[in-house]
Specification:
Blueprint lengths: L7 E6 L6 H10 L5 E3 L2 E3 L13 E3 L2 H9 L3 E7 L2 E6 H9 L3 E6 L1 H10 L4 E6 L3 H10 L5 H15 L7 E4 L3 H17 L1 H19 L1
Parallel strand pairs: 1-7, 1-8, 2-7, 3-4, 8-9
Antiparallel strand pairs: 3-6, 5-6
């Protein structure tokens, strides 16, 4: 029985190179869930294999900035010369329909979401070690040494902000990290502040049925 009928916003965040996307994919491959992924919008060029509307909505810089002026983002940030943002209308639609909306965003974006939607569940994906993070950044092979170094320095700063999150999940193995996130989601639905109202409503309905 799902006591919390409202949609749940799950924010998965962490430093670049920690494997957020891989963990997210494993989470969605798990059985018995009703998760919806929020596709972000970006001005960067698609990487090989990426499809518009699947990994990201790819738009021009002018289009993105017009959306900023119109207040159409739940959060957005600029990094290494490109914008990244979460379309607000898509999130609101999913939550209104009672869906589990998962955002995979950068640390700066998560701070913006907390200001607008403090009831969201914030999960920080952390690397097992700093050395492991450095290997992952270098393994991509799609960026220059300067950009990799910039991402590494930024990642170190962001790890220091993990205390601002509700949960920390270490990405030691992808399956283990996904299992922990799913357990967090289930536990959050049982949290008294989320579920008590729905439970009491169910009790009242049962009383009416018996009458």
């Amino acid at each position: 029985m799902k006591l919390d009928k409202k949609g749940l916003l799950i924010v998965i965040s962490g430093p670049s190179g920690v494997g957020k996307g891989t963990v997210r994919d494993a989470l969605f491959q798990m059985k018995g869930h009703d998760l919806t992924f929020s596709v972000s919008m970006t001005t960067r060029q698609p990487r090989e294999g990426e499809v518009d509307g699947r990994e990201y909505f790819f738009v021009t810089r002018d289009e993105f900035e017009e959306r900023i002026k119109e207040g159409k983002f739940l959060e957005y940030t600029e990094f290494v010369g490109n914008y990244y943002g979460t379309p607000l209308d898509k999130v609101n639609e999913a939550l209104k329909d009672g869906k589990e909306m998962v955002l995979e965003i950068e640390v700066e974006g998560a701070k913006q979401v907390r200001k607008i939607m403090p009831d969201a569940v914030f999960i920080f994906i952390a690397p097992p070690t700093i050395g492991d993070l450095e290997k992952r950044l270098n393994k991509r092979g799609t960026e220059s040494k300067e950009i990799i170094n910039e991402r590494y320095q930024k990642a170190i700063r962001e790890i220091g902000l993990a205390y601002q999150y509700d949960y920390i999940v270490v990405n030691d193995t992808v399956d283990n990290a996904a299992d922990k996130i799913m357990a967090i989601i289930r536990a959050e639905h049982a949290r008294t502040t989320r579920s008590l109202e729905g439970y009491m409503e169910n009790l009242k309905l049962e009383e009416v049925d018996h009458d």
